[in-house]
Automatic annotation (TrEMBL):
Ranges for the PPR repeats: 184-218, 219-253
Name by which UniProt lists this protein: PROP1-like PPR domain-containing protein
GO process terms (BP): regulation of mitochondrial translation
Organism in which the protein naturally occurs: Pyxicephalus adspersus
Keyword Acetylation on entry: no
Amino acid sequence: MAALLAGARLVLRQGLRFLPAYSTVYRVLPAPVSVRYLHNSARFLTTALPDNGTVDVESVQSRDSPKTQPDGWSLHITGSKLKKNGRISKQHLLNTLENVCAAGKPSSNQAWFLLQACGSSMPEVPLAERTEIANTIWDRLQGMGVAFNEHHYNTLLKVYLENEHKFSPTEFLANMEANQIQANQSTYELLIAAYCHEGDIEGASKILGFMKSTDLPITEDVFSSLITGHARSGDMESAKNILSVMQGAGLVPRRGAYTALLCAYAEKGDIESINQTLLSCTTTPTDKGFLKVIYSLAKSGHSQLVPSIFDHMKNCTGYIQDVIKMCLALLTQGSGDTAILLAKKFLTVQPSDFDFSSQPGSFFLRHCVHLNLPAETIKNYAHEMASSELHHSPLQFALMCALEYGKKDLALNLIRTLKEEGLPVRPHYCWPLLASSSRKNDVQGKSLLFWWL
């Protein structure tokens, strides 16, 4: 016991020097603090572990703000994030929902805005959870008396498609009719896409026939969906022939149709057909379209073919936020190896900076910690980041995130990894863990921590 107390005194005597990064939430005085000041807990304001739960990726910002903000302010911040980055965190969306609802019954536009953020705008959230959030928001707004129109239903349909949610298009349409909402052209196009997503050409054909009977125009989006539908039904020849059908209907196949065909080949792992299509197509997909092809390859288990797609891409100028968004989505869905390839290929290397959060690889490591990936996996990604100069202190940054999110076990494993790598283990790295163990009277946890030190 005397040895343990001596170790504790050593840790506390060193204070909080040499913090590896300046967190966006916790500001730490770099000067050493004597042990006699321990009674003043404010002197040790640091990333102490919470007792319960974890912190979402961007929830740290919300803790710095008043709990209640005017709904206009909240929507403005959310809109700014979506415009700048094309994505928001789950916690930020839920905070926005609370602020809007606290101000009274949301308007029709506010309801639409909240619903449309529940799809691909949250790449850090699993697909099923995104759909659950959308349904929760829908039910809550409906309970508050918000009058939904066809635009809200179309937005919900689009969210279902982005989240790859399985549902009955027939029941969805019946629900609209029961609520006296008239479906429009966008509704029918989205319903066709829903049928085609499951490879149900018969169901899609019924809606297509109705559109023709009511003289609704058949757009490129419909043909693109039919390409996907035929491919997923196992008929690649018919999928390819859709391009000829488009030309016969007076439509010139554009990037959307070619991207759909490339994604169909990607799901089959047919890189030869992808290359042939790119040679013969009249218009080349954008880099954003190629990102969809990469996603299809990774999702269908053909990630080894991803480097072949890089050869057809430029430098993703103007699409860096889309690259980051795709990396986050791939990580969330378990395709981290593809995500790291994408990050190394297109993210811009920046000079070393003391601000860890501004380095190109910070978002990647933060999300790895948020997903609670194994320490060994994070270690491998950290090495990739360091060798690519996407982050200059990746393991230390990952440890900071683990402490910030209250992931004690991961933090301990990362401390051990730092020691194994021959990197310095600063006393203040361990202070949050020691504080947490002290609150819980976890003698074993403190003993293990001292042993590692």
